[in-house]
């Protein structure tokens, strides 16, 4: 498996999303017209027409896919000025060819503003076989468009009729209409005789065309008419430098975070820690190769998810090593290899359940989201599966081989398993009864939730453009511009209600409602007076209907995550445990959301990805504690549940601390070195891990105990009532 992964890594280049390599993504929505219904078939035909148009524009490696029944996603790598592409894409391009009459017909103006009587259509865009832009090297006609027809007879009949008029007569012209507007009205050559027409089935459209106008016209004519009209509901443009900076920043953060995580694991677990570090390297190789082999698109949130999963992949190793330490302490004469084997066996259920809950959250990200957030769900899913393989296959094989060597067996302290560890020894000396104060812990959690809800109500959420609709443009300036100066400049350009923020030393973001390209150009000119050279780094435009839809999807995703986790945990454990874990997850989500409300940080699609990851991480912690409670309760059913829960919480603290440290190294590196694009993502996850570590012990477990006590009390009262009857 490692050899195959290495081969794929060396021979296959990853497919980068537009937010990493730069370009424009446009989401179109088809809608009904008086002539056609915007169903799945019409949308498929629209995709084919758009593909012809974009191919004619010469944009390489374009991507066109249908999403649902009436959406089309267009990806244009390298295209920074999307205005021209949108002009070609959005037009229905109803092309038609008409005869010209001396009287009657429709009175129209030709391409030069002269009056023209246009007769009924004789040919349409469906009759066009090929259209191509050309240039006259003698510069007599300039740029022109050559149009070839599928059947030359119709074209010959149309020109034969026009040839019957006298040379110079307006009736001797052919009117070419695009979207009911005359774009050209060429004269039939005087040499063409009346009734004969032009054979060969081709013509040239001439006019005062530049190169771009000619190529765009050829693309429209070649593509033909769209079956149904389309509207732009979302548009994102990312500059190539911003994507390159994100890749470099993420790579630096990944290297530093992984090195620190590996050093921490080696420091805590010694020899098996070295093997775990090798397993982490194998995990990174396997998961990266899987992404490359699947042809998955690596987006910025996906890249962050890949880096984060490296830190979370250490969790399975820590679970096994801590269980092996317990086995070695209980039966030291059996040797560390036996303890390690039993550690893998005993940790299996906790690893399986925790990974399943994370996969559930990742699956919801994939099915209930779109764009970069969906890419995050894919990379997180692959990361979970790869960590499962690396821990239970790679690490296990190497660890069992190493601990079976005679030199290692003679000095078991080298393995890092022949000892309780610093955290465990401290806990064993103190032996605190945490669950005795369970109502106090629940009160503390309640106060934290109340503060978070207060922030959400009082401060409100700074919803990103994905959820509100509108336009967000980020600029980089050659001179430093503070936020107040940027706000005054944008307000002076006619946008006093725009949200203007300055981040870093030379970055300015402007968010407002509907903003045309001309208005955006005015804002850029206003900023140039203070910031020097202004470069557009990112441009996001989301329609209000799509914003409402994304908000609904976010609520559905969170609700489905909570409901799905509750059902899974109720089946695997008890309904009281499931309810405790779900309430702890809700506790974590509300507190992190409240933190973003108080701090004014943006709540956008990347924040949603972080929030669903927090749900997976939170339930992951709770599952480990509940798994230990179930094990202790089965071993001694007569022991009070509160005592078993307290022992379970104390026994899993080393695992929680060591796993959290591994993830914290990665996230701290992302927050400090990952750049502006990943800072909010890392901050949300940092807060989520800290709060989730608390809630798994001090919220989920006490809640389960309170619910279990009430359930037992109700059952006892019912039994006593039945006895009296």
Automatic annotation (TrEMBL):
What InterPro entries is this protein classified in? SecD, SecD/SecF_arch_bac, SecD/SecF_bac, SecD/SecF_CS, SecD_1st, SecD_SecF_C, SecD_SecF_C_bact, SecDF_P1_head
UniProt topology in membrane: Multi-pass membrane protein
Where does this protein chiefly localize? Answer: membrane
Keywords assigned by UniProt?
Answer: Cell membrane, Membrane, Protein transport, Translocation, Transmembrane, Transmembrane helix, Transport
* Segments crossing the lipid bilayer: 249-269, 274-296, 302-322, 343-369, 375-399, 440-461, 554-571, 578-599, 605-626, 657-675, 681-707
Protein export membrane protein SecD/SecF C-terminal domain spans which residues?
A: 232-401, 527-708
Q: Which residues form the SecDF P1 head subdomain domain?
A: 111-228
Tell me the superkingdom of the source: Bacteria
The record's annotation in HAMAP family points to: SecD_B, SecF_B
- Quaternary state and partners of this protein? Forms a complex with SecD. Part of the essential Sec protein translocation apparatus which comprises SecA, SecYEG and auxiliary proteins SecDF. Other proteins may also be involved. Forms a complex with SecF. Part of the essential Sec protein translocation apparatus which comprises SecA, SecYEG and auxiliary proteins SecDF. Other proteins may also be involved.
Q: What does this protein do?
A: Part of the Sec protein translocase complex. Interacts with the SecYEG preprotein conducting channel. SecDF uses the proton motive force (PMF) to complete protein translocation after the ATP-dependent function of SecA.
Mind telling me what this protein is named?
Answer: Multifunctional fusion protein
The protein's organism comes out as Actinoallomurus vinaceus
Protein's gene: secD_1
């Amino acid at each position: 498996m490692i050899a195959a992964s290495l081969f794929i890594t060396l021979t296959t280049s990853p497919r980068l999303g537009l937010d990493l390599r730069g370009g424009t993504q446009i989401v179109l929505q088809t809608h009904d017209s008086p002539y056609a219904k915007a169903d799945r078939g019409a949308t498929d035909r629209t995709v084919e027409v758009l593909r012809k148009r974009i191919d004619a524009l010469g944009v390489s490696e374009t991507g066109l896919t249908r999403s649902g029944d009436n959406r089309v996603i267009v990806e244009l790598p390298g295209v920074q000025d999307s205005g021209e592409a949108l002009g070609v894409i959005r037009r229905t391009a109803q092309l038609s060819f008409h005869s010209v009459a001396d009287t009657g017909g429709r009175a129209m103006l030709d391409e030069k503003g002269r009056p023209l009587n246009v007769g009924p259509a004789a040919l349409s865009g469906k009759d066009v076989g090929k259209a191509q832009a050309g240039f006259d090297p003698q510069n007599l006609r300039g740029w022109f468009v050559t149009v070839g027809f599928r059947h030359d007879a119709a074209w010959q009949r149309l020109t034969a009729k026009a040839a019957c008029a006298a040379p110079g007569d307006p009736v001797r012209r052919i009117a070419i209409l695009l979207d009911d507007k005359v774009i050209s009205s060429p004269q039939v050559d005087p040499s063409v005789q009346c009734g004969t027409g032009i054979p060969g089935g081709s013509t040239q459209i001439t006019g005062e065309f530049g190169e771009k106008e000619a190529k765009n016209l050829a693309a429209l004519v070649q593509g033909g008419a769209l079956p149904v009209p389309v509207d732009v509901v979302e548009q994102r443009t990312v500059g190539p430098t911003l994507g390159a900076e994100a890749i470099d920043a993420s790579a630096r953060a990944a290297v530093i975070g992984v090195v620190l995580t590996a050093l921490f694991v080696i420091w805590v677990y010694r020899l098996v820690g070295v093997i775990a570090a090798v397993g982490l390297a194998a995990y990174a190789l396997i998961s990266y190769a899987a992404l490359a082999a699947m042809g998955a698109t690596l987006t910025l949130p996906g890249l962050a998810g890949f880096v984060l999963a490296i830190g979370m992949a250490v969790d399975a190793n820590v679970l096994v090593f801590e269980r092996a330490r317990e086995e070695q302490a209980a039966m030291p004469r059996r040797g560390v290899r036996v303890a390690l084997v039993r550690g893998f066996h005993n940790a299996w259920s906790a690893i399986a359940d925790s990974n399943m809950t994370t996969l559930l959250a990742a699956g919801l990200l994939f099915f209930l989201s779109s764009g970069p957030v969906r890419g995050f769900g894919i990379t997180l899913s692959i990361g979970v599966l790869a960590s499962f393989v690396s821990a239970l296959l790679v690490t296990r094989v190497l660890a069992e081989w190493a601990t079976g060597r005679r030199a290692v067996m003679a000095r078991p302290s080298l393995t890092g398993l022949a000892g309780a560890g610093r955290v465990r020894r401290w806990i064993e000396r103190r032996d605190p009864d945490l669950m005795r104060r369970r109502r106090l812990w629940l009160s503390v959690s309640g106060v934290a939730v109340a503060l978070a809800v207060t922030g959400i109500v009082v401060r409100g959420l700074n919803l990103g453009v994905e959820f509100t609709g509108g336009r967000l443009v980020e600029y980089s300036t050659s001179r430093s511009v503070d936020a107040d100066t940027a706000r005054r400049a944008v307000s002076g350009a006619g946008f006093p209600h725009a949200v203007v923020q300055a981040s870093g030393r030379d970055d300015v973001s402007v968010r407002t409602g509907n903003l045309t390209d001309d208005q955006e150009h005015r804002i850029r000119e206003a900023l140039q007076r203070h910031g020097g050279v202004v470069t557009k780094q990112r441009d996001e435009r989301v329609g209000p209907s799509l914003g409402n839809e994304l908000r609904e999807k976010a609520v559905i995703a969170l609700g489905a995550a909570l409901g799905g986790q509750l059902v899974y945990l109720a089946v695997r454990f008890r309904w009281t445990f499931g309810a405790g874990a779900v309430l702890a997850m809700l506790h974590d989500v509300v507190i992190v959301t409240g933190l973003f409300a108080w701090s004014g940080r943006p709540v956008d699609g990347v924040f949603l990805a972080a929030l669903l990851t927090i749900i997976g991480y939170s339930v992951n912690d709770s599952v480990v504690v509940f798994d230990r409670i179930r094990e202790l309760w089965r071993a001694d059913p007569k022991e009070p549940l509160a005592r078993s829960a307290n022992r379970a919480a104390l026994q899993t603290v080393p695992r929680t601390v060591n796993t959290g440290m591994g993830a914290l190294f990665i996230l701290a590196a992302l927050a400090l070195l990952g750049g502006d694009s990943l800072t909010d993502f890392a901050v949300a996850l940092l807060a989520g891990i800290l709060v989730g570590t608390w809630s798994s012990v001090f919220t989920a477990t006490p809640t389960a105990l309170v619910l279990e006590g009430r359930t037992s009390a109700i059952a006892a009262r019912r039994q006593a009532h039945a006895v009296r009857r």
